[in-house]
């Protein structure tokens, strides 16, 4: 999970959220029986958070990556320019049923894959909430392990540990299939930088020039894959600093 900065709140949400939020608050806050349980009345059926004016900004902010696991969401092919939203979900970080006042709160939206959204469901633990990809402090608690492709806690704090366990259990952040893809992406990029740097020390060998050119092309092609965008971007910056000779070649190619 990497930190993702949201852009400013969409105007349609800013101007309408009070009106849109009221039915949800009325349903979940007023329809409570004497036993303290929710009376089963028909809940609001609107879903304005799925409007393109909202979704497309969120998609752009998240680079179409699930905020929790980093997987890229597919975008359907269409000749209709209005149909550009990918097959991801607008996840309510704080569940609507528990925090109805946040149903139309921009800071409560996380772009998510279906798996993470479904697994998370209406989970609520005020003391140990799952980690929020739009919180710099939350993401700073995590360390990426290149050898395994997993995220783990950077420090052993009991409160953070419970939050991490909830995140690990209720999202796909460390799902086996995902950590393999994540590990291979980072290791491949790292290998391309390292081998290219070594080959640049023996440029007098003619065959090396062709291999170097291929490696630079492979690095550029790899960066076109938007999956795990924020992780790859972070690793790419670190590799450029470590191998300035390769970075210079990329920039001048």
Write the SSE topology:
Blueprint: H1 11-30, H2 52-61, E1 89-92, E2 109-112, H3 114-120, H4 136-139, E3 142-145, E4 150-153, H5 158-170, H6 176-199, H7 206-223, H8 229-242, H9 244-252
Antiparallel strand pairs: 1-2, 3-4
Descriptive notes:
The structure is a single chain. This protein is mainly alpha-helical. It folds into 2 domains: 11-174, no CATH class; 178-252. 47% of the residues lie in helices and 6% in strands. It contains 9 helices and 4 strands, in the order ααββααββααααα. The chain has helices at 11-30, 52-61, 114-120, 136-139, 158-170, 176-199, 206-223, 229-242, 244-252, and strands at 89-92, 109-112, 142-145, 150-153. It has a two-stranded antiparallel sheet. Strands 3-4 form a two-stranded antiparallel sheet. A hairpin with a 4-residue loop joins strand 3 (142-145) and strand 4. The longest helix has 24 residues, at 176-199.
Major sheet: 2 strands, antiparallel
Secondary structure tally, helices: 9
Helix content: 40-55%
The helix-and-strand class reads mainly alpha
Number of domains: 2
Please give the number of β-strands.
4
Distance between the termini: 32 Å
Strand order of the largest sheet: 1-2
Mean pLDDT across all residues, rounded? 88
Element pattern in H and E: HHEEHHEEHHHHH
Short précis:
The chain contains 9 helices and 4 strands, in the order ααββααββααααα. The protein is mainly alpha-helical and 253 residues long.
